[in-house]
Design brief:
493 residues; seven-stranded parallel beta sheet; Rossmann fold; six-stranded parallel beta sheet; binds uridine-5'-diphosphate; alpha/beta; 2 domains
């Protein structure tokens, strides 16, 4: 009798999920959105992070809480470990040198202690942990908490990296940067150039790190993806059936955001005040939005060519340059200052831009992007086609998905995986202008790409609505966690 009542109590107590995002805006932002999405389904959510990273997601969490009827989302703030980094340097966006990166890696290890402390004192029903905290697989297992991992990638890119890590296809390919490398075992024929891939010999540390991440993900309860079934169905099937891995697709999580303007920052660029007004003056679909996420840096020659390309394209553009780039005197092409001063064709945002607001404005007709997965999925959700300009990590694989599988983009032809800013391949202004022209044109190619982008946007929105595929995956995951809780905890009594 007592056992039956205890079991009933267990069933009624809301699930409690701890979110432990990796310390970079591209991980924190979707995790805050994901917490909003689970909280809206009655899950008690806590996000464990450090002060600067908490500030980044505070406004998104506050707005989500304002809209909630059930339990609120908490942010549990722990100090950033003292590893000799300057105050305020707490995430990947603020790191400037290899020395900083080494210290940051130490700090990431030291977060194990507050993570375990939370598990011991709060007994959450599950943790959604950033995949890069690969040690959290063992820590969670020691405390009997199921670990769901979040890498923040597409399923397509995750399948590509799994194929690379498992088969090391570079080993049998000539040491020529242009050599084509096939990734075995995938539903489509996927080929990358050698220069577009992580090199297991030249980047041995990275390779070993990703092997550990992949192994830890496989020992976990499962993985959550910011994606949706209808976007990459062959890769959902591949993941579940061929790889035998458990995954739930719960996105696009940005569609759960209640914070279209301030999402992802506590310091929106002052330029952003005027950007909706400027966009309002432009015809529908006439503006190219240009932004490369939170981590990418361009050299002065690259910025010079990008500015030339935007000018040569003849299109309206809104360009996010970030706050901390090289001085404009080092890269500004002749005549560009005058073009900007006229204010009719171009708008520059220095610092943090309200990307969701911009992408969803009817004036936006294309997005020049580095193919960071959040940006790509935000564009898909908004029905905006892309010019793809990948730089490193999963971005070259995401480009393949966008251009070759989904056919909602035009590739700019980037080939250079993660070389240093100073030596990075410089893409000429003419090539940039031509790619923008292809995407924005009214010819058959441009029209077909635009149509596909609009179709996908409808599917994305349907996926997160009541009864949609992502809505259902959230429900199934909650059911599994609830069932697991009842069986383990009542069994322990
Ligand atoms: N973002 C934004 N404003 C900016 C720069 C970035 O809102 O000025 C957001 C963008 O909407 C996305 C995230 O930051 O949600 C960047 O993630 P992504 O995966 O695209 O790139 P990363 O920065 O991780 O390379």
């Amino acid at each position: 009798m007592q056992l039956a009542m205890a079991a009933q109590d267990e069933q009624q107590r809301p699930l409690h999920i701890l979110f432990f995002p990796f310390l970079a805006p591209g991980h924190l932002i979707p995790i805050a959105d994901m917490a909003a999405l689970f909280a809206a389904r009655g899950v008690r959510c806590t996000i464990l992070t450090t002060p600067v990273n908490a500030a980044i997601i505070r406004s998104a969490v506050d707005r989500a809480n304002d809209a909630l009827a059930g339990p609120a989302i908490d942010i549990s703030v722990v100090p950033f470990p003292d590893v000799g980094l300057p105050p305020g340097v707490e995430n990947g966006m603020a790191l400037r040198s290899q020395g900083d990166r080494d210290k940051f890696a130490r700090a990431v290890q030291l977060l194990r202690e507050p993570f375990e402390h939370f598990l011991v004192h709060n007994h959450p029903d599950a943790v959604v942990a950033g995949s890069y905290f690969h040690w959290s697989a063992d820590a969670a297992a020691e405390h009997g908490v199921p670990r769901l991992t979040f890498l923040g990638s597409s399923m397509f890119a995750r399948s590509c990296s799994e194929s690379m890590l498992r088969n090391n296809p570079l080993a049998t390919v000539p040491d020529d940067p242009d050599a084509l490398v096939s990734l075995p075992g995938l539903p489509h024929r996927v080929e990358l150039r050698r220069s577009q891939m992580m090199d297991p010999v030249k980047q041995a540390d990275h390779w070993a790190f990703f092997q550990s991440v992949n192994a830890a993900d496989q020992r976990s309860f499962g993985e959550v993806f910011n994606s949706f079934h209808e976007l990459e169905p062959d890769y959902v099937e591949h993941y579940h059936t061929t790889l035998g891995r458990r995954a739930w697709l719960v996105g696009p999580v940005a569609l759960a955001s209640k914070d279209m303007a301030g999402r992802g920052t506590d310091a929106l660029s002052p330029d952003s005040d005027n950007c909706p007004g400027w966009l309002n003056t432009k015809p529908a679909g006439s503006v190219v939005y240009v932004s490369f996420g939170t981590l990418i840096r361009f050299s002065p020659p690259e910025l010079h060519q990008l500015a030339r390309g935007l000018e040569l394209s003849g299109r309206n553009f809104m360009w996010v340059t970030g706050a901390a780039g090289p001085d404009p005197s080092e890269w500004m092409p002749e005549g560009f200052t005058e073009l900007m001063a006229r204010g009719d064709r171009g708008f520059i945002i220095r610092g943090w831009a309200p990307q969701l607001l911009i992408l969803n404005h009817p004036a936006i007709g294309g997005f020049v992007t580095h193919c960071g997965w959040n940006s790509a999925l935000e564009a898909v959700s908004a029905g905006v086609p892309m010019v793809t300009w990948p730089r490193y990590a999963d971005q070259f694989s995401n480009e393949k998905l966008i251009v070759e599988v989904l056919k909602v983009g035009v590739s700019i032809g980037a080939k250079d995986y993660a070389s240093s800013v100073e030596t990075h391949q410089v893409i000429g202004g003419e090539v940039i202008a031509e790619s923008i022209g292809r995407l924005m044109s009214n010819n058959e190619e441009g029209g077909a790409i635009r149509k596909k982008a609009k179709d996908l946007s409808v599917k994305a929105r349907t996926a997160v609505e009541n009864g949609g595929s992502s809505y259902n995956d959230v429900g199934q995951l909650m059911d599994e966690l609830t069932a697991r809780r009842s069986s383990t905890k009542v069994g322990e009594m």
